[in-house]
Design brief:
Blueprint: H1 3-7, H2 11-21, H3 26-33, H4 37-45, H5 52-61, H6 66-75, H7 93-106, E1 111-114, E2 120-123, H8 125-129, H9 145-150, H10 162-180, H11 183-193, E3 213-217, E4 220-229, H12 237-240, E5 243-249, H13 252-259
Antiparallel strand pairs: 1-2, 1-5, 3-4, 4-5
C-alpha cells in the first residue's frame, strides 16, 4: 500500500483494508490472532484504540511488510518500530558488504540486487556485460530491471523464449502485488503487460515451475536459471526489501561461454 494512501486512513480503516485484501473475515483474523471478534470489530470501526502491542500482533498475523507495519503504527499514534536507512548509510555497511560479496563471488555468472520496486541497486560485471545494446534511456537511473528485461529496446529482442520469460516475470510481479498491495507495482505490471510480444504466453505458476532464461549473446544462446536471495531476519525496511537474483548456467555450453 502506498504511503500517501495509508496516511489518509485511520488505523482501524487500514486494518480492515488489509484484512479484506488478505481475504479474511473478522472471525478468521480474530481466531488467528487469538483475540475476540468483538474487540477486532471495535478496533476497525474506531470504537476502541488498539495498544502498540495489539497493532504489532495484528500486523504480524496479517503478514504485513515492515514498511506497512510502520505505517499502521503511525496511523495508531505510535512511533515506527522498524528503521528505514538508506543503503549507503553507515548503519547498513555490513549489508552493503554482504551484497557486494555475493554479487562479486558469483562472477562469471550474472547476478543483480534490486529493491522492492525492481530498481537496480547493484550488479556484478557479468550481468552488466549483458546490457550491451540496451537503449540509453532504459539505463538512466533509476534502472528498472523488469523494464530493461521486457522493453522492446531492452533485452526483449535477445530473449529467445520471450513469451515464456515474460509470463514468468509478470507472474512473479502479480504475486508481489498480492503480498504488498503496492499501487506502484500494479502500475509497473500494467506497463510491462502492454509491451508488444509476438510469442504466446503460457500460464505460469512461479511457485511450481523453474523457467529458464534463454538469451542470445555474442552469437551463442545462453540458458540460465535463477535463485533469489533475501536477508533472513531483517529489522530495517530497506534491508527487508532487498533481493539478490543470481543466474546459473542451465547447461555446460552456457557455463563454457560465461567462463570464457
Amino acid at each position: 500500500m502506498t504511503t500517501a494512501a495509508a496516511l489518509d486512513r485511520s488505523a482501524g480503516a487500514l486494518l480492515r483494508q488489509w484484512r479484506e485484501h488478505r481475504r479474511l473475515s473478522q472471525m478468521e483474523l480474530s481466531l488467528r490472532a487469538d483475540i475476540s471478534t468483538r474487540h477486532l470489530s471495535f478496533i476497525e470501526t474506531g470504537r476502541s484504540v488498539p495498544s502498540r502491542d495489539m497493532v504489532l500482533l495484528l500486523a504480524d498475523t496479517l503478514e504485513l511488510p515492515l514498511r506497512d507495519r510502520n505505517q499502521l503504527l503511525l496511523a495508531a499514534g505510535y512511533a515506527p518500530v522498524y528503521s528505514q536507512d538508506a543503503l549507503d548509510s553507515p548503519r547498513l555497511a555490513a549489508v552493503r558488504t554482504a551484497v557486494r560479496q555475493v554479487l562479486t563471488g558469483h562472477n562469471p555468472f550474472p547476478a543483480v540486487a534490486v529493491d522492492r520496486g525492481w530498481n537496480l541497486v547493484e550488479a556484478n560485471e557479468s550481468l552488466l556485460a549483458q546490457l550491451d545494446g540496451v537503449a540509453a534511456d532504459l539505463l538512466a537511473s533509476p534502472v528498472n530491471v523488469l523494464r530493461v528485461s521486457l522493453h522492446p529496446l531492452g533485452l526483449a529482442s535477445r530473449i529467445v523464449n520471450l513469451g515464456e520469460w515474460r509470463a514468468h516475470l509478470l507472474s512473479r510481479l502479480r504475486r508481489q502485488i498480492v503480498i504488498t498491495a503496492d499501487e506502484s507495482l500494479a502500475e509497473l505490471h500494467d506497463e510491462l503487460a502492454a509491451y508488444p510480444c509476438a510469442e504466446a504466453e503460457p500460464v505460469v505458476d512461479s511457485a511450481d515451475v523453474v523457467v529458464p532464461l534463454r538469451l542470445r549473446h555474442d552469437g551463442a544462446e545462453l540458458a540460465l536459471i535463477s535463485t533469489v536471495t533475501t536477508f533472513g531476519t531483517p529489522m530495517d525496511v530497506t534491508v527487508a526489501e532487498l533481493a539478490i537474483e543470481s543466474f546459473f548456467p542451465a547447461d555446460a555450453a552456457t557455463a563454457a561461454v560465461l567462463r570464457g
